[in-house]
Amino acid sequence: MESIDDLNYIEHRAYARVGLLGNPSDVYYGRTISFGLANFWATARLRQSVDLVIEPHPYHDLVKFTSLDNLAGLSGSSAIVCATLNCLLDFYDIRQLVKVEHRPNLILSAEGELGITAGLQDRVAQVYGGLVYMDFKKEHMDEMGHGEYIPMDTGLLPQMHLIYAENPSDSGKIHSAVRQRWLDGDEQIRSLMEEVAGLALVGRESLIKKDYNTLAKLMDRNFDLRRIMFGDDVLGSLNIKMVEVARSVGAAAKFTGSGGAVIAYCPNGAPQVRRLEDACRKAGFIIQPAILVPPLITKDDLQISLEI
Known about the structure:
By secondary structure, the chain is of the alpha+beta class. It contains 12 helices and 8 strands. The strands form 2 sheets. The protein has a 4-stranded antiparallel sheet. About 45% of the residues lie in helices and about 20% in strands.
């Protein structure tokens, strides 16, 4: 039985995310479209204490902080930090002092201290929720310190499906030279990354027009460009197989992040979804409908951004 002190706490949940289009160009001053994924989440609970104490989850092992613990490619680490940040903002009653556009930067900076290298996309999706278009053009980043984040109508997103393996390979296990090649001015990498960023721009218009056939083509192209740039050794055979299984029934498919999970769209409706489900089960993959997180930003959050 919980004591009164145990009940005196602040708790927040932060969700997984899906990079729908444009990733990984967020690290390269590009554009992306992402959405919050309600299938998985991390939870942080904060209680006042004389000492700083990080307690293990009472019902699980010492390293389980999230429903994302056995999954890769869904931004579990930033979900933990995002949930914790929300607890701290409420505990110190300073939510009104921190612009919503700056919160993803705080999350990323905390992860950076742990040696995690990433872009802002995941953190934006987890702070904003819903469906978000993001533009990270250098001029805006240099002037404002953050990208331009535009929430979109969640009703524009068609039903999609999440595919993952029970024992996934971690994203980024094998070192990639793409970042260094981009920094060195490699023309091929820079050109391909610009094309990746352009997919999000076209994808935004496709979503607004509900042109889902074009959306499917953009998703496939996004994966193909990543494969050209990074190569199969970096992507991993299991991750590639998930995409290939989805494509075997005509579904569009790409990584949700850097690998570990795949987002798939069946433009031909329910019969194609059933074929996709059968193909995934035969291949030993788990498939489930992607559940969209509703928008998390309130009018108060937006007002804070205007006033500060």
